[in-house]
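Per reviewer request, we include the raw input and output of the structure prediction for the construct analysed in the revised manuscript.
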Amino acid sequence: MIPTVPGTDGPPAGLARRDWIAGVDKGLAILEAFDASAPRMTAAQMGERMGMTRTAARRYLLTLTHLGYVGTDGKLFWLGPRSLRLGQAYIESSRLARIVQPFLQRVTAGTNEAAYVSVMDGDDVVYIARNGLNRHMNTGYVLGARVAAHVTAAGMLMLAVRESPSSAEWLDRATLRTYTSFTITDKAALAKAFERIRTLDWAVSEQQLELHHRGIAVPLRDAKGQLAGALSVTMPMGQEGTEAALDRVLAVLKETAQALRPMI
């Protein structure tokens, strides 16, 4: 997804103009513009991608190069290793990421599956803590990995139960990309899935992101009942049916989420 530059037309609602530094917003948007489809760009390409002139894009890129966040050969620009500091700083400073690790170990020991804690960022799930090995999973969620929310159990759960924006509001504007032949891209079907998730307070996703793999997730709520993230496991499906998998792991997930609640 190509980032936008909200600072172009002034500060967002709720923030006074005197408190808004558009240069910071644009600089961060430049960093976010690099992705798998555009890992290296010229200043002109960046300007086109960001809706700014080549000259303006070049100034931002050269500044970020000087700071170490971007690399260049004089023509092309790319993210530098220092950009990893931003994500690592979040992992190290996030209270949720720090307190969940012993609990993830409990989930892995109780299920023999890879366990994760994730949060929502826009339309994506971001994995901020994990424990256990990925068993032959091509997608392999590493710390900081971003995945489209609608194709994961954790993402579907958080989309369904969060208050703002609601799942209905999200569906109105969402573009649903297909990853496998099982990916739900019909919005009416997805709305029904969200309704079921809200009733059950857990979610299961099978083969929506990768064939022959299943995810099961429960919500992580704080002491006030507010959604803080999702606790999930992923597994190869093998010969194990859905009900058998739920019987084996769901109780462990629920008990762990409940034990975490006073600490979040």
